[in-house]
Design a protein that fits this description.
This protein has about 1050 residues and is an alpha+beta fold. Among the domains are: about 1-125, no CATH class; about 135-275, Pleckstrin-homology domain (PH domain)/Phosphotyrosine-binding domain (PTB) (PH-domain like), CATH 2.30.29.30; about 295-395, PH-domain like (Roll), CATH 2.30.29.30; about 415-700 and about 715-745, Cyclin A, domain 1 (Orthogonal Bundle), CATH 1.10.472.80. An 8-stranded antiparallel beta sheet has the order 17-18-19-13-14-15-16-20. Helix 13 (about 470-480) runs parallel beside helix 19, helix 20 crosses helix 29 and helix 29 (about 735-770) packs across helix 30 (about 775-795). It is globular, with a radius of gyration of 37 Å. It starts with a strand and ends in an 8-residue tail after the last helix. Keywords: Calcium, Cytoplasm, GTPase activation, Metal-binding, Repeat. Interacts (via domain Rab-GAP TBC) with RAB11B (in GTP-bound form). It is found in: Cytoplasm, Cytosol. This is TBC1 domain family member 8B. It comes from Sphaeramia orbicularis.
Length: about 1050
């Protein structure tokens, strides 16, 4: 065990200890009297002394000491009862510490680092020993340190903490890593040097495990262009998994809300815990992915057991996984056998056998599965009994639905309608097709058929050889898990079709446009039958999932599904593909496809080094392979060959597409290496796809030509799709699904951050044309603006700000701030640091710059306001303040046209754009006059702005002088007004000659309407009193005569300092009250 470092002197110690191993910094010793030979008389005396004094608990037989070459002081850092235990500690020091110590210059730094590391390991061991029952006291202490050191808002929830080393340059800092819901934090304080790091999960570009010369293994974090390395973690894998889960949680919650809304387990950021939220969610997600189960299922219990496999006549070791509605088993002995048993299919659970701790589960179809050596067999048996009783209800509903509603939509696959099989046809292709069917029937008789079929290596072998046309729809439903979705949602599709009938949205418009582009040469889609079925499926899905709605490539995929599956089955297959098997593929940014292309690039680097050497920029393969992933090769291969690829996809998921992509590149390796540019490479691949055939396909030639865009009849070679798929499995079948999922998580961070960076660059390019900020200042402002948007989302279950972020909108509209968010950020960045009425001023500014009055401010509006206050002329700054005190045009906040299921009001958008284009630049003559109340408030605002300034007294006198001057001018105007009868003449006497009486008459009612109730009452009591007002030109002329005020507003603002202060203060709790 590791010991708290204690100093010892070795002057006489060598008489009691024997050195077993040593190096420059550590010594491993054995106590005399233990081990080989016993140590003679000295060893005997030592052993006797230890026994008599019962000091074995204090003096272990083995120990490790730390020292430095130029010091006589030794520090005890570890002890062990057995040789194996102490050697394990020694090996850890050799692998993790020795290389690191070489970077230190002084012995004191080395000793300080080692001591800090050992103390961290002790704390880590103490914490890890309590994994099953967290020590509340220790966690409370860690939470107090976390709150004290990082000063984050009190709502921020600490998830877990670890001792580790953080590499700052070439020198490691020993400290503590804190992982909270929204932040990764590190703190170290050694020898007076404090290191503090706070990174929000949504800022991370890369998160991966790495190793290099100095570090055997570490965690690499890339954020804001800076690399951060964390090493010497006692439980590195556990730490990395939790970091990965937290980063993925943040990405889903803040950037990828479509997927996040389907995961209620993680919706409340204040309830995220290491054990009960993250670990449970990760296990459930892995469980659902492996067994292709609906999103609603959660892993509840896991039991190790043996399952009797009838076709092999032996028991296979594996694990029983139980969820709300499914009993699943997966082998662990390499046989690749798994089975899924829906509770609705269970008819009985026989009385458990206590001698073998076995239980037998009977399912429909006169089949039984016997699980043995189950530790908690009795409780598992009772659980299954109770759950299958509940699920039987849904089965009855499903059977009733089949009987009543099945005629509401098409119940036949289009292939059976437009290409029925001729039973009497005995040509070679049909004979081979019959042989395939016979092979599958034999497989069904041995392994079962339907939802409780055994999945084994033989199943995959049959898939690779090709699925018979007659069984394709059934097997697609089974392998994808869509059969379970349909069985548990009886009548759902029919209801969707009825509800979506006649709706008009952007999605339905796009669907109508693409209907006749879906396999246009196939007979099924040259008729109203096929087109109508395609329309119903796509429209129903767009209605079910408006976040996705409809995206291009969905029509191609759905048309192929309709060929082999009934209409409702095709709908559920589409659900399985879009929501489970290809997550985030079919949205505006096709994030899922981009992520898988990044995974594909990684696999190319690993498996095709020759190609990488020739083409260092692999982005070409990303662009050319996009259609491969989006359409599962349907858009590039002939239809009769593409369906074989879809067979493999439904069985093995995206792994099958990746394997086939590698096989295609491998097949064309020589040609690709010899090509000179991208266009030539594209031509090579297109010719290759045109040459792919399916020699065993029984489809007629008209159907086989349907999906080929450019069939090259002069091709000198043909490639059979079955051979290509078989080669892909033989060469790249070792790629594991777990590795693909891990690579997906790693690359998803990078892909989303790249898209976010593109958005930022586009926004900055647009805004930079209208403001005086430099590019770097705009970059920092954008980061502050975006973080402020997210800060209101961090600690709220359903934050309204999350609704403001829509990646499908224009770049400028993707991030917007409501008033509360805006007021906090404006408080941090406003140039008048002394202003006391923050909330009132920010409300007026927000109202003024919200041009479309939708209650939201975008980045451009925000920057233009700041630019005016920071860098504009005195006149423009004063005009901005003047306009703050004018009443709004109307009291209604107008909302922008919203996207949704209803028809989008395009006319409203066009009118809004036209107004923006025709909007002319405002002059000071266009500004309306301000009345008494507004002018008094304007004066108060000036006083508040000047409050606390070093020249406050002179500024106050200047404002008082201007106010007095304007009021005297008003008094003169009133006196001149008394002998005159028309109101227009009296007003023209005290205003500038440049303004007409018509303008005054038009502004006076508006001003009087917005007066305070008190002023209105005064006016009502004395009708002879005339309401007075001032124009902006009068106010400007008066203030220009006061050098103190002009100097105050023309004083330059240190923008860089302001930005730095705002960045440091943005996370402080006081800014979020």
């Amino acid at each position: 065990m590791w010991l708290k470092p204690e100093e010892i002197l070795l002057k006489n110690a060598f008489k009691l200890w024997v050195t077993e191993k040593d190096n420059e910094y550590f010594v491993l010793q054995r106590r005399r009297g233990y081990g080989e030979g016993g140590g003679g008389l000295t060893g005997l005396l030592v052993g006797t002394l230890d026994t008599v004094l019962d000091s074995t608990s204090k003096v272990a037989p083995f120990r490790i000491l730390h020292h430095t070459p130029d010091s006589q002081v030794y520090w005890s850092i570890a002890c062990g009862v057995t040789k194996e235990e102490i050697y394990q500690h020694w090996d850890w020091l050799q692998q993790n510490i020795m290389r690191t110590l070489s970077v230190f210059d002084s012995s004191e730094d080395i000793t300080s680092f080692v001591q800090g590391k050992i103390r961290g390991l002790i704390a880590e061991e103490g914490k890890s020993s309590l994994v099953l029952e967290d020590d509340p006291e220790k966690f409370r202490e860690a939470l107090l340190r976390f709150e004290k050191w990082f000063e984050l808002p009190p709502e921020e929830k600490l998830v877990t903490y670890y001792s580790c080393s953080y590499w700052k340059g070439k020198v490691p800092c020993q400290g503590w890593l804190y992982l909270s819901t929204n932040f990764l934090c590190f703190y170290s304080y050694l020898l007076g040097a404090e290191v503090k790091l706070v990174i929000s999960w949504d800022e991370i570009w890369r998160l991966e495990k790495t190793s290099n010369v100095l570090l055997t293994e570490s965690i690499h974090v890339l954020a804001h262009g800076e690399d951060h390395y964390f090493s010497m973690l006692l439980h590195l894998n556990e730490t990395f998994v939790i970091m990965e889960q937290l980063a993925n949680y943040s990405i889903k919650r803040l950037f990828d809300k479509e997927a996040f809304q389907r995961e209620p387990a993680l919706c409340d950021p204040l309830q995220i815990t290491k054990r009960y939220s993250l670990e449970a969610h990760a296990k459930s997600e892995q469980f659902r992915t492996f067994f292709r189960l609906p999103k609603e299922e959660n892993l509840l219990e896991v039991h190790e057991s043996f399952l009797w496999v009838p076709f092999s006549h032996f028991n296979t070791l594996g694990k029983i996984c139980l969820s709300e509605n499914y009993l699943c088993f997966a082998s662990q002995d390499g046989s690749q056998c798994h089975v899924i048993i829906p509770m609705r299919e269970v008819v009985n659970v026989e009385k458990p056998d206590s001698s073998t701790r076995a239980l037998t589960v009977c399912v429909r179809g006169k089949r039984a599965l016997r699980f043995s050596e189950v530790r908690d067999y009795q409780r598992l048996s009772n659980t299954i009994r109770s759950r299958c009783g509940i699920s039987a209800i849904s089965l009855c509903c499903y059977m009733l639905y089949i009987f009543i509603f099945s005629k509401a939509v098409s119940t036949e696959a289009l292939m059976t309608v437009f290409h029925p099989q001729d039973v009497e046809n005995l040509d070679p292709k049909m004979l081979k097709e019959k042989m395939k069917e016979q092979s599958w029937n034999i497989h069904f008789s041995e392994y079962g058929r339907g939802t409780s079929m055994f999945f084994t290596r033989k199943t995959r072998d049959l898939i690779v050889r090709g699925v018979p046309e007659a069984l394709r729809g059934e097997l697609w439903m089974l392998f994808s898990g869509a059969v379970n979705d349909m069985a548990t949602h009886p009548g759902y599709y029919t209801e969707l079709v009825e509800q979506s009938l006649g709706t008009s949205t952007l999605a339905t418009d796009e669907i109508e446009r693409d209907l006749h582009r879906s396999l246009p040469e196939h007979p099924a889609f040259q008729s109203d039958t096929g087109i109508s079925a395609l329309r119903r499926v796509l429209t129903a899905y767009a209605y079910r999932n408006p976040k996705i709605g409809y995206c291009q490539a969905m029509n191609i995929l759905t048309s192929v599904l309709l060929l082999y599956a009934k209409e409702e089955e095709a709908f559920w297959l589409l659900v399985a593909v879009c929501e489970r098997m290809l997550p985030d593929y079919f949205n505006r940014r096709i994030i899922g496809a981009l992520v898988d292309q990044a995974v594909f690039e990684d696999l190319i680097r690993e498996n095709l080094p020759q190609l990488v050497e020739h083409m260092t920029d692999l982005s070409f393969f990303s662009s050319v392979s996009l259609s491969w992933f989006l359409t599962l090769f349907i858009s590039v291969l002939p239809i009769e060959s593409a369906v074989n690829v879809v067979d493999c996809f439904f069985y093995d998921g995206i792994k099958a597409i990746l394997q086939l992509g590698l096989a295609v590149l491998d097949y064309n390796m020589e040609a690709l290496i010899s090509c000179h540019d991208d266009a030539e490479a594209v031509t090579i691949l297109n010719k290759f796809f045109d040459s792919v055939t399916n020699k065993d396909s029984p489809l007629p030639p008209t159907v086989q030509q349907a999906s080929v865009g450019n069939n090259d009849k002069t091709s000198h070679f043909n490639v059979d799709i079955s051979e290509l798929i078989r080669e892909a499995y033989e060469k790249y079948g070792t790629i594991r699904s777990e590795e693909v999922e891990s690579s997906r998580k790693k690359n998803k961070l990078y892909v989303i951050q790249t898209l976010e960076d593109t958005t930022k660059q586009n926004v900055i390019r647009v805004v930079s044309q209208e403001v005086r900020f430099s590019a770097s200042q705009l970059d920092e402002l954008y980061n502050l603006f975006k973080r402020q948007h997210f800060l209101s989302c961090y600690w709220t279950i359903n934050s309204p700000a999350l609704l403001h972020h829509d990646p499908s909108l224009a770049y400028l509209e993707q991030y917007q701030l409501g008033f509360q968010q805006f007021s906090i950020l404006f408080f941090l960045l406003e140039p008048w640091a002394f202003c006391t009425t923050k909330s009132t001023l920010s409300l007026w500014v927000f109202r003024l710059i919200d041009e479309n009055q939708d209650g939201l401010v975008n980045f451009k509006e925000f920057c233009c306001a700041l630019d005016t206050l920071y860098s504009n002329s005195f006149t423009n700054k004063l005009k901005f303040l003047f306009k703050l005190h004018l009443p709004p045009e109307d009291g209604v906040i107008r909302k922008s046209p919203e996207r949704g299921r209803g028809k989008v009001d395009l006319q409203a958008y066009l009118k809004q754009w036209q107004n923006e284009i025709l909007k002319k630049e405002e002059t000071i003559k266009d500004l309306p006059r301000i009345n008494q109340t507004q002018f008094i408030q304007f004066s108060k605002t000036l006083y508040n702005i000047f409050h606390g300034d070093p020249e406050e007294e002179s500024l106050y006198r200047a404002v008082a002088h201007v106010t007095s001057l304007l009021l005297r001018m008003e008094e003169v105007g009133r006196r001149l007004q008394e002998p005159s009868s028309p109101a227009e003449t009296s007003k023209s006497a005290h205003v500038s000659g440049e303004e007409s009486s018509a303008e005054d008459a038009s502004t006076t009612p508006e001003s009087s309407d917005t007066s305070s109730p008190h002023n209105s009452q005064d006016a009502a009591s004395d009708l002879t009193e005339v309401e007075w007002s001032f124009s902006f030109e009068q106010v400007l002329a008066s203030l220009l005569n006061e050098p103190a005020i002009v100097g105050f507003f023309e004083r330059p603002v240190d923008i860089q300092t302001k930005l730095a202060q705002a960045k440091a203060a943005q996370l402080k709790p006081k800014t979020h009250k």
